[in-house]
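This part of the workshop introduces the protein records we will be handling. An example says more than a description, so a record of this kind follows:
>
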Amino acid sequence: MSAEPRSRQETLALRKQLIGSSCKLFFPEDPVKIISAKGQYMYDENGNKYLDCINNVAQVGHCHSEVIRAAHQQNLALNTNSRYLHDNLVDYAQRLSNTLPKKLCTFYFLNSGSEANDLALRLARQYTKQEDVLVVDHAYHGHLTSLIDISPYKFRNLEGQKEWVHVAPLPDTYRGLYREDNKDPAMAYANEVKKIIDQAQQKGRKFAAFFVESLPSVAGQIIPPPGYFQKAAEHIHSAGGVFIADEIQVGFGRVGKYFWAFQLQGEDFIPDIITMGKPIGNGHPVSCVATTKEIAEAFSATGVEYFNTFGGNPVSCAIGIAVLDVIEKEQLQLNALQVGSFLMELLNQQKAKHPLIGDVRGVGLFIGVDLVQDQENRSPATEEAAIIITRLKEEFIMLATDGPGRNVLKFKPPLCFNAEDAKLVVDKLDKILTELEKREA
């Protein structure tokens, strides 16, 4: 006989007793106990249905039947490491290669975005024989020690910046150094990259890589100006480094118009390495690094093999293939484009109505709503953002904040999110903003 289900308070008490306190909960004062999920919806122990606007890991929707079936069927047959031949590994690599520029033709499979970014760093350093890394401010690339070191979002609150790490301004045209009134913000931000490289080289530093999220997420749902990556890549290549695009939050059709977010920069831009994670397995732990033959061969030249026990196992690859199948079959990339455009339109209508909304930015189903106390000074409305998130939870909508000021409402829902969902969220947001503005009047 199975034990009686625990109450939410019993589960919370056990979590406090057994789990490290740095592992934070959403809504710590009144956390939600989720016991099941389907599509873009999650359900608590009382059967309440929550609309999920933030789980970009469940790319094709929570508990998708085809993904579950693929995992189950392969689990019944075999699961082992990748030292044996198996079709799933090469089939999956082939399927991924069909979505990428031909130059990115060699793959490594791993278990998490952090593992993928750590390997990308190793590849870059082995290929260039250099150490230094350039990143953008407020970046987050993972929780391993090697990645905390290149994540200003983390290291600024820990041991600080290592001498081999160089931080360029975030290419944010709303709050950044160069804003929407700049004639060529892509060039202006790329010139900052060159300036930092030049200053470092004068001190004898040599670069392995420019490591950047294709769309910086924890920095506040940032959309870099088109052309910035091309120009920044020229500068890092001239310095002997490679360009690494971190697609962990934003790949696999989320941006709608393209399969990969780096493609928003233009057809003439191809990174040297890209990393994938989160949505790649729809909740199953799998990740990938794609790179060029030259970089992969330099990595092999050490004579030290790369082996990852679970990376590329038959079950993970079956799941990965199923995710690609569902994205294609259910036209989720097109859905991201259409529903994302509709959501942006609704949010911009709210921007015209509510002075608390300073900026609405995004592409596909990657959208940020920047809340401000003052339209002219753009001071972050951090407290108001927290109130909105809590109020939305009371309306059974899961949304979260990001950005240095924790004032940006971030939308990264499963790609099955639909127009009705978009309208529901915005209607509730309108109601809450109206309440807040009346209170502050």
User: Anything to note?
Assistant: The mean pLDDT is 96. The CA atoms of residues 251 and 260 lie 5 Å apart. The first strand starts at residue 34 and ends at 38.
